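pasting for the record
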Amino acid sequence: MPIKSAVESFLSRCIALNLAAGSITWYRHILKDLAAFLAESEARELKEVSPALLRDHLSGLRRRGHASETVFRTYGGIRCAFRFWMREGMIARNPMELVERPRRERALIRPMSPEQATRLLDTPDARSWEGVRDRAMMMLMLDSGLRISEVLSLDSGRVDWLNCSAIVMGKGRKERSVPFSARTAQALLEYARARSQRPAKAAQFFLGRTGKPICRSKMRKLILRYGQQAGIEGVRLSPHTLRHTFAVLYVRNGGDSFSLQEILGHSTLEMTRQYVNLARRDVAEQHKKFSPIDVLAGKTSAASTVTQNYQLV
């Protein structure tokens, strides 16, 4: 079986299973990347793929600078494809069974500070249609922790203005209701009024200048540009950073992990606890800066005393 034909067969199976468009695009990307690597290694048939070639491909991803999380997910995607090909009788043996799972290093994205988030929201030009749209879009992400795919696929008819909530399609094609504040609702309404005066060629709430949906790369570039204009440093300027910022600020302001799990659409509470732990570390850092005892005794003298005692030990 030619590798190219096998890839198309697997993608057809993904479409038949009604997987999310983003998942299908991701599978297509990693498998075509694998096929290109195998072609360079003169392996064009599935039966010619060996565990050594697959290990070389995964190692090459690391050498090209891909994060460990990306390599880990790529390994899982390739393994899923080979299991399908094995079940379909396209191969007599599964070489992925002999390829070790790469170690996963999940680094939590550093969130923005409240001051940085405020500067980001103040950057779009409120006099322009696009500025009104972009500010509303970023406010919604910072207020509800939506993923980039959830924001861009939000249907204009799924916004509940009366109850300040919206129905979004999350991972695994699972719908959930996410709340937003009255202040965010005002920004969304302002954009909705501006949107109604322009031609709309799609049902999505957030549209581009031509009336078509905004693509992911466009949104990433927007947030990067606004972040740079606002002079924000020390954090990654990406849509996912806004999601992380929401989660940490939500916990810091008194939100509980169970409601946070519902809002973020996490399947397990374990995924949500990382934000709780990050918020706790943030509280510890704040305590170091504003400890009442340090303030009463004088921060400089207290710090020097600790240093001297440590040196004596």
